[in-house]
Amino acid sequence: MVLSRLQKLVNYLRPHWRNVVFGMIALLVVNGLGVYIPLLIRDSIDNLRQSFTFQEILGVVILLVVLASISWGIRMPSRLWIFGIGRDVEFSIKQGIFEHLLTLEPAYFSRNTSGDLINRATSDVDNVRRLVGFALLSLANTIFAYGLTLPVMLTINVRLSLLAVAVYPLMLIAVQVFSKKLQIQQLQIQEKLSDISQLIQEDMSGISLIKIYAQEENEKRAFAEKNSQLLRSNLELAKTRNFLFPLIEGLSYISLLMLLAFGSSAITQGIISIGDFIALLILVERLVFPTAILGFTITAYQQGEVSVDRVEAIFKTESKIKSSVNSIALPISSIEGKIIAQNLHYTYPGEEKPAIKDINFVIEPGETIAVVGSIGSGKTTLANSLTRLLDIDQEQLFIDGYDVTELDLNNLRNIIAYVPQDSFLFSTTILNNLRYGDPLKEQFETEISAKQAEIHKEILNFPQQYETVVGERGITLSGGQRQRTALARALLMDSPVLVLDDALSSVDNKTATNILKSLSQGKQRTVFFISHQLSAAAQTDRIFVMDHGKIVQMGTHQQLVKQPGLYQRLWKQHQLAETVS
Ligand SMILES: Nc1ncnc2c1ncn2[C@@H]1O[C@H](COP(=O)(O)OP(=O)(O)OP(=O)(O)O)[C@@H](O)[C@H]1O
C-alpha cells in the first residue's frame, strides 16, 4: 500500500524531475551556507578576543551580508521551483480527472454523487498539491538541515550537542501519537465536505420541488446539521493541531534552555570557546524550524496520502463501455439504418431481474417505430442499449448487419442521434446548444433543424434570437421549448437513426404528430419514437408494445387496436382521457 502510494508520487513527480533536482540542489546549497555562516561567526568572535581591527570586522560583516544574500537569492527560486511542481501536478491531475470522467459510462455517475466527485477534483487534488509541493520541500529541508547541522554541532562538542537535541525524539513520539488521530479527523472533514457539496447541488437542482412541498425549513435544518458536523470536525482537528504544534515548539525551547544551562558552565570550565557556544546556539536554533515544520509535513503527508487514494480511485475505474481493439468505423453516408435485435436482454448491475429480455425485432431502413408501454416496462433501457449507454453483450443488436459492440463508439453515436428524456441544455446561447454535436455547422443548417423541430419561430421571438443565452443567466425555456431545442440539436447531426425517448412529452399531440411526420421527409431515417403519446404513436409505421421488459405486441396501429391486449387497453384509456379533456 505504502509502496504503491510512493510509486504514485514518483509518477506524479517524474515529468518534473528537472525542477525537483534543481530545487534539491538549491536547498542543499542554502543549508550548507546556513551551517557555514555560524562557523564564520564563531571564528570571528574567537579572533576578536585576540586581535581587533576594524578592517577585519568590516571584512567579516561584508562576507556575512554577501553569504546571507546568496542564501536568500537561492532559497527564493528553490521554493518557487518546488511549489511550482505542486501547481503543475495539480493542473495535470485536474485535467486527467476531467478527461477520465468523460470516458466513464452514465452508470458510474449514478453510483458516485457529483458532490463527492467535485470534492475529489478540488479538495483532494489540493491535498496532493501540498504533498508534492509543500511536503516535499519541507521534508527535504528537514533532512538537509539535520544532515548538515548535526555533524557540525558534534564536531564542536558532542555532549552539548546531544543534550541540545535530546528532547527532539520526544517531538517525533508526540507527532507519531497524534498522527493517526489527525488522519482520521482529516478524512472525516473530507466526507463532511462531500456531504455538504452534495446537499447544495441536489437542493439547487431540486429547488422547485423544495418549494412545491414547502420544505425550505426542513432543508435548512438538514443543511445546518451537516454544516455543524463539518464545524465540529474542523474544531476537533484544530484542537488536535493546537495541542500538537505548541508541544513541538515548547520541546524545541527546552533544547535551547539545556544548551544555555550546560553551555555556560562549559565556557567557564574552558571546554568550549564563546565562539563555539554562540555557533551551537545558532546551529541548534536552525533546527527549530525544520523540526516544527516536520509536524505540518506529516499532516500534509497524511492528508495527501488519503487524497492520493481518493484521486487514484477515479483513475482506477475503467469504463466498461469502450470501443473494442478491432472496432470498425462505418462511413455515415453508407448507413441504411436497418436494426436487428436478437434475444436482447439487459440486467442492471446489482439487480436480479433483467430490465429487458427476449427482445427480437427487425426494423427496415427508414421505418418509424413507436415504442409504447407501461411505466418501467423497459423502453428507456432499450433506447440506452441501442446507443450503448449500457454495457450490453455482443451479438444482440445489429445496425446494417454490424454488431453495435464492434462499432467504434464515436462512430455508433454519430450513426444514432439520441434525444433522452431530460432535454438538458447548457447555459450558453441557443445556437451553441443547437450545434453542440458539431460546432462547425453553419447558422442556416441549424435553422433548418430548428424549423423541423418546430422551434424556429419561437427562437426568433427571443430577445437575441439564436444568440439568446438559455439557463442560469439567460432566458428560461418552457418544458416544450427545451424538448424541441434538444430535438433540433439531434436533427442537426443528420444521423441515419434517430432515437427519441419521450422527447416530445411536453409538446401538444398535434405538434408532436407534425414533427414526427416531418422527420422522415426528404431523408431516409430510421426513427425510434418512445412515447406515452398514443395519438402520435398511432401515426408511425409500426408500434412495439412493451410490458415487464418484453415486447408483447408488434404491428401497425390498425392491427393492434383490433387485437385484444395491452395496446387495445392503453388506446381505450387514451381515448377516454382525450374525451374527458
Ligand atoms: N440504473 C438502474 N438501475 C437499476 N434498475 C434500473 C435502472 N434504470 C432503470 N431500472 C429499472 O429497469 C426497469 C425498466 O426501466 P426503464 O427506465 O427502461 O423503463 P421505461 O419503460 O423507460 O419507463 P418510463 O416509461 O417511466 O420512462 C424498471 O424496473 C426500472 O426500475
Automatic annotation (TrEMBL):
Listed GO MF terms: ABC-type oligopeptide transporter activity; ATP binding; ATP hydrolysis activity
Record carries keyword Transmembrane helix: yes
InterPro entries in the record: AAA+_ATPase (IPR003593), ABC1_TM_dom (IPR011527), ABC1_TM_sf (IPR036640), ABC_transporter-like_ATP-bd (IPR003439), P-loop_NTPase (IPR027417), Type_1_exporter (IPR039421)
Entries under SMART domains matching the protein: AAA
Gene3D superfamilies: ABC transporter type 1, transmembrane domain, P-loop containing nucleotide triphosphate hydrolases
Domain ABC transmembrane type-1 span(s) in chain numbering: 21-303
Membrane association type: Multi-pass membrane protein
A GO term from the CC aspect: plasma membrane
CDD domains associated with the record: ABC_6TM_TmrB_like
Compartment annotation: Cell membrane
UniProt keyword annotations, A-Z: ATP-binding, Cell membrane, Membrane, Nucleotide-binding, Transmembrane, Transmembrane helix, Transport
PROSITE patterns: ABC_TM1F, ABC_TRANSPORTER_2
One protein family per Pfam: ABC_membrane
Domain ABC transporter: 339-573
Transmembrane segments: 20-41, 53-74, 131-154, 160-178, 251-272
Protein known as: ABC transporter, transmembrane region:ABC transporter
Lineage: Bacteria, Bacillati, Cyanobacteriota, Cyanophyceae, Oscillatoriophycideae
